[in-house]
Amino acid sequence: MQTQPTVHLQTLVLLLLVVHLSQPVCVDVLSRTEAVLGKTMKLTCIFCMKREEVKGKTFVEWSYMKLHEEKENGNTSQKYSIYKYENDSHVELDGPFKGRLTWNGSQDLQDVSISIKNVTYNDSGVYECHVYRKFEFGFFTPYVSKFKNITLTVKEEASQDTTALYSEIMMYVLLVFLTFWLLVEMVYCYRKISKTDEQAQDTAY
Questions:
Q1: What is the DSSP string of 109-126?
Q2: Crossing angle of helices 4-22/162-204, nearest 10°?
Q3: Does the pTM exceed 0.70?
Q4: What would the pLDDT profile of 89-140 be if each residue is shown by its tens digit?
Q5: Is 17 helix (H, G, I), strand (E, B) or coil?
Q6: Which residues lie below 8 Å from residue 79, measured CB to CB, with a gap of 6+?
């Protein structure tokens, strides 16, 4: 017969494992790089958090730059901001994308993707996703940042983007593997606690 403290310990372990299993698993995947004319295109940008980063403040800025466009002085075209997330609010900036951008990220801000509606040929170019996270520990305010560039090409008809397809398949395989591994760990911990309790009872007798 199990003692009451042991039952409580087993229940606590199971609850912790269930909570851990219920937490979303973050996997960084590549964005698609080909958009279809007139359709909606998702620009994927994922910045996974470490456990100690969960309580940090996240700022996101999306920028756009034309491809192969030269200015009069010979320099490449200028990069300009098109979308921002800051202070818990979404800001769609003025420009050719105004009214066509929507947030397509996650609530925990690990996925900070956006979507472009009604894609045109003029949307071809380089999109930059800049994620900035700030943490406050008294007078110490460390931060981490990430830049990700997506070179987008607009086509009249869809073609098979093998790189993005492979990335998505690997993401789902990894999610299944991690879930299975956590279940195995849960069963192993439960059996180990039960065995320890049985040995303790045998020693007591």
A1: SSB--EEESS--GGG-EE
A2: 180
A3: no
A4: 999 999 889 999 999 998 889 999 999 999 999 999 999 999 999 887 777 7
A5: helix
A6: 63, 64, 65, 126, 128
